[in-house]
Amino acid sequence: MTPHHNLIDGQWTSGLSYAPNTNPSDLSDVIGEYAQGGASDVNTAVAAAAAAFPAWSTSGIQARSDALDKIGTEILARKAELGELLAREEGKTLPEAIGEVGRAGQIFKFFAGECLRLSGETVPSVRPGIGVEITREPIGVVGLITPWNFPIAIPAWKIAPALAFGNCVVLKPADLVPGSAWALADIIHRSGIPAGVFNLVMGRGRVIGEALVNHPDVAAISFTGSVGVGRGIAEACVKHGKKVQLEMGGKNPQIVLDDADLNQAVELSAQSGFYSTGQRCTASSRLIVTDQIYPAFIEALQARMAKIKVGDARAAGTDMGPVVSQAQLEQDLSYVEIAKAEGAHLAAGGARVACHTGSGKDGYYLAPTLFVDTEAGMRINREEVFGPVVSVIRVKDYEQALAMANDTPFGLSAGIATTSLKYATHFKRHSQAGMVMVNLPTAGVDYHVPFGGRKGSSYGPREQGRYAQEFYTTVKTAYTLA
Q1: Of 192-206, 345-359, 403-417, where does mean pLDDT reach its minimum?
Q2: Spatial CA neighbour of 367 closest among 390, 347, 349
Q3: Active site residue 168
């Protein structure tokens, strides 16, 4: 089996060791062996990035734009191939995986355009005869630490703006999904970007991530992952004076009001809770349903769940793939037991299931799981499970639903199903979330608009779209005597 090396200073570099990348749909299928780097690899990569920064940060914007456009073009041309790899290593269904790859390509093309749209301001000084220019400049070497649930889209939406605005990058992808990151690194490597501008160092988070966060020549860290790790990174970055951007957990509410279109509400709830195996930070695992529609909604949602086919991510007809790993499966099942112990009623699922294709493949398959008649204080409604486990809270009216939706330490995404313009408008203003969806799934956002949340979900400037410049650039004010 061909080993996959780290990319450091424009060279494929051997790791200290190699780890297997296993298909969660079929545990007998090893995708490849991927490098496990160490702190010394981080030091070498950061040194290469720092050396490349002066030339790259002042290079012509057309060259940057051309390189990013070339990357996006190749990603889109290989969408089916890369989607196959993504589905194989992460467990996302093939249509979802191909869609994610397409999004990655579109992100690079968007930021190819942003290279040419860099702008500033010229303003008069309060002092006669003096001009003032306000410009944005790149910040330096940026460390990017990405999660396993979107193994090509999230690296793309961090790498593309970092490069577009003139920074140099060291990427540390999630241990569970190195294949997509390696394939992306290979495309970037062949795009014409100079050696050292982009570097890939794979390995354990507590080794590679810690070395990146604490390296004195890393100017900024962008992290997507768990709350606990994110808070630790924030503390270290503040200590070292680094810029930091965090996207962490969510316990996203989906309100269903009495006046909602029942079929629409059921479908968007099913998509929010169970598609991508519920392994999305924007997934809605907390359904808040008002009294009159509650019985019909529960019955209809159970019927919709019964139609979800769980199986091999790449097989035709699969609606929901496996959980990503044994550890994640154990976490999901532990929350099932916690919910039952706290008195929640298990209405569907709650256990491992066989692959629906009948292939006999051994994978981390979990039935879509629904708890009803739950209480707001239960752990199932307070903590992020990160799997296909959804709970339902019954409330009397919109006012109680809104209060319940905002009663969470998180604030990433929130949704409402209603035909009332009054309630939709009020909810958009008063929801304590960074992203609000009206009659749409809570999971699913565009690549050209800002992404991020409030409270414990996010920290620092927004990701994606033109708002990405807030993190990847610094502002300079220059005065000139006429």
Answers
A1: 345-359
A2: 349
A3: no
